[in-house]
Amino acid sequence: MNNEKFYANPGPLGLMGFGMTTVLLNLHNAGLVSMGSAILAMGLVFGGAAQIFAGILEFFNGNTFGLTAFTSYGAFWISFVLLIVLPHFGVIAASSPALIGSYLLIWGLFTAILFIATLRASKELQVIFATLVILFGLLAAGEFTGQAIFTTIAGFEGLICGFSAIYLAGKELLQVRN
User: Fold this and answer.
1) pLDDT tens string 127-147
2) DSSP structure class, residue 110
3) Alpha carbon distance 38, 21 (integer Å)
4) Alpha-carbon span 52 to 32, nearest angstrom
5) Contact 18/51 with Cβ under 8 angstroms?
6) Distance from the Cα of residue 137 to its chain's centroid
């Protein structure tokens, strides 16, 4: 009798939460849509909470990378939404462009470390993290320089990143065996 427990793969949930939220935000960054509640709500619930949930589930699968990536980027999305929303409610003053640039740069550094870890993983995962490093770098450059062209380019590059995550989520989801 086999007592081994099999758990579901939380990867597709985390990847979809990341990918779909990244696509929505970068439609805005590319100048194709205005910032709105759809992006912020997606950031809190699917990009934020669902990714944290997926990360916790990765813990039970013994996947340190998945735990770290999903819970961290879930926290990123929640913090990102709070950076936008809190100043509008007068809770705290908005951060300076230099501070937002630093915020994005440190996330880029963290992502670069995770990218190195993907070198032992699939090419699809490498593409997601490589494009995410570039995305954070472009967004940081836009904040540091005040040049909107960096944010616009980041928006289009971010669409590649987001759709790459959606692709991998779909691939993993469709490989599920019942």
Assistant:
1) 999 999 999 999 999 999 999
2) H
3) 10
4) 29
5) yes
6) 14
Tens of pLDDT, residue by residue over 115-124, are 999 999 999 9
Rounded distance between C-alpha atoms, residue 41 and residue 20, angstroms: 12
Other CB atoms within a 10 A radius of the CB of residue 121 amount to 12
By the 8 A CB rule, do 162 and 27 touch?
no
Residue 28: CB atoms within 10 A of its CB come to 17
Q: Which residue, among 113, 39, 141, has the nearest Cα to 83 in the 3D structure? A: 39
The 8-class DSSP code of residue 33 comes to S
Amino acid identity of residue 47, one-letter, is: G
Q: What is the pTM of this model?
A: 0.93
Please give the Cα distance from 79 to 82 (Å, whole number): 5
Say what the pLDDT of residue 4 is: 62
For 9, the token pair is 């793969």
At 144, list the tokens: 């540091």
Cα(99)–Cα(83) distance, integer angstroms: 11
Residue 17, Cβ density class (10 Å: 0-12 exposed, 13-18 middle, ≥19 buried): buried
12-60 pLDDT, tens digit per residue, is 999 999 999 999 999 999 999 999 999 999 999 999 999 999 999 999 9
**Closest to 111 (Cα-Cα) out of 80, 133, 128, 141:** 133
Structure tokens at 110: 């963290």
